[in-house]
Design brief:
By secondary structure, the chain is α/β, with parallel strands linked by helices. It has two domains: 3-146 and 357-373, 3-Layer(aba) Sandwich (Rossmann fold), CATH 3.40.50.1370; 148-354, Aspartate/ornithine carbamoyltransferase (Rossmann fold), CATH 3.40.50.1370. The chain has 13 helices and twelve strands. It has a five-stranded parallel β-sheet, sandwiched between helices. Strand 8, helix 8 and strand 9 (247-252) form a beta-alpha-beta unit. Helix 7 packs across helix 13. Residues 164-189, 191-197 and 238-243 have low confidence and may be disordered. The chain binds phosphoric acid mono(formamide)ester (CP). Residues 47-50, 142, 150, 330-332 line the site of phosphoric acid mono(formamide)ester.
């Protein structure tokens, strides 16, 4: 693996999930792969989970790790060609990238959307320069448009909590009579084949919901979550006896927040949040600003005063119409904006195991990149 950006970069999702469980079983078994190899993690933006989990994953693999916070201690970087550099930026990315690459074997980069130009953000102008000029494998630690390490961890978490139990939509072949039983041990992360536990043709309903936020946030997390859910629904080895899709993936948001078709093609959009939540097995909440799909001039904007949108905050009211859904969020989360205290603290909340799985998704990706070096 030379680039980790899209779901297609990880290949077969069933194999990737099985590999994630193998990592969980013994995360230190590949220390030989990382010996005398260095991961450089470059942050243009803040991070808690990505920084710690990726560093831990690299150390699990026996790698050395260098973390660079570009905006704290490094020279301010110019990213545009042709600029007369008479301002506060002392170094150009075009020199900085090959220099940084000379000190490492694999590069991870976090660089959020800047909201200055939709074209620049959606063309991944910064990350593509790292791919082009570093000569190293590059993995995206949240870029302008994608957050694949998060989406992979989300998929691992969903697979681990796949309901094998009786449910209103379950069939006679249900494996457990206890609703919501977690099946997380061994290699059980793979969803059951043949629709086990859900009846012939049964599907799992996963809902991605927009939620209010006071600031303009990028679309990277919902873009990747949608991309990975759609790929999972098309490729994972399950589905009913009738061969139906295993995942009914629904996106709900106020009008104007339509995500870019390159990520959500094939997904169902339901503008009525309560209707979308009906019968959901997993609820994934996230705020995002206007993606500029239907209104290019509004790209990166918050379309409504958040005070008027608080009924989109995920609470017991919405969760009551679900199929006792698990709650998910990538974190950090603003409580009582995105989700109420009781929901995030409730027994169906997966936010902590989801964050813990960031170490696993990062380790699978780094392991594959190391294997491609050796
Ligand atoms: N979910 C996530 O990427 O968290 P951080 O921004 O803290 O890295």
């Amino acid at each position: 693996m030379k680039i980790f950006q899209h779901v297609t970069d990880i290949g077969d999702l069933g194999k990737a999930l099985a590999e994630a469980q193998e990592v969980k079983r013994d995360r230190f078994q590949w220390q030989h792969l990382g010996r005398n190899k260095t991961a450089l993690l470059i942050f243009f933006n803040n991070s808690l989970r990505t920084r710690l989990s990726t560093q831990k994953a690299a150390m699990n693999l026996g790698m050395n790790v260098i973390v660079l916070d570009v905006n704290q201690g490094a020279w301010k970087l110019e990213t545009e060609r042709g600029v007369i550099m008479d301002g506060d930026k002392s170094e150009h990315l075009l020199e900085a990238i090959p220099v940084m690459a000379s000190y490492c074997d694999i590069i991870g980069v976090r660089s959020f959307a800047r909201f200055e130009s939709r074209e620049d953000d959606y063309e991944e102008k910064i990350l593509n320069q790292f791919i082009r000029y570093s000569g190293r494998p590059v993995f995206f630690m949240e870029s302008a448009t994608v957050h694949p390490l998060q989406a992979f961890a989300d998929l691992i978490t969903i697979a681990e909590n796949w309901p094998l139990s009786n449910s209103p939509r379950g069939g006679e072949d249900s494996l457990s009579s206890e609703k919501g039983t977690k099946k997380t041990s061994g290699n059980e992360a793979l969803p059951p084949t043949g629709g086990a536990g859900r009846g012939a043709g049964a599907t799992l309903k996963v809902v991605l919901t927009w939620a209010p936020h006071p600031k303009a946030l990028p679309q990277a997390v919902p873009n990747s979550f949608a991309e990975w859910m759609i790929a999972a629904s098309q490729s994972l080895p399950l589905g009913g006896v009738g061969g139906g899709s295993p995942i009914d993936f629904v996106i709900t948001h106020p009008e104007g927040y339509e995500l870019d078709p390159q990520f959500v093609k094939g997904a169902r959009v339901e503008y009525d949040q309560m209707k979308a939540f009906e019968g959901a097995d997993f609820v994934y909440a996230k705020n995002w600003s206007c993606p500029g799909v239907t209104r290019p001039e509004d790209y990166g904007k918050v379309l409504h005063d958040y005070h008027t949108m608080m009924d989109w905050c995920v609470s017991a009211r919405q969760m009551a119409v679900t199929n006792d859904a698990h709650f998910m969020h990538c974190l950090p989360v603003r409580r009582n904006m995105i989700v109420t205290d009781d929901v995030i603290e409730g027994p169906r909340s997966l936010v902590i195991p989801e964050a813990a799985n960031r170490e696993i998704s990062a380790q699978v990706v780094l392991k594959r990149m190391l294997e491609s070096l050796n």
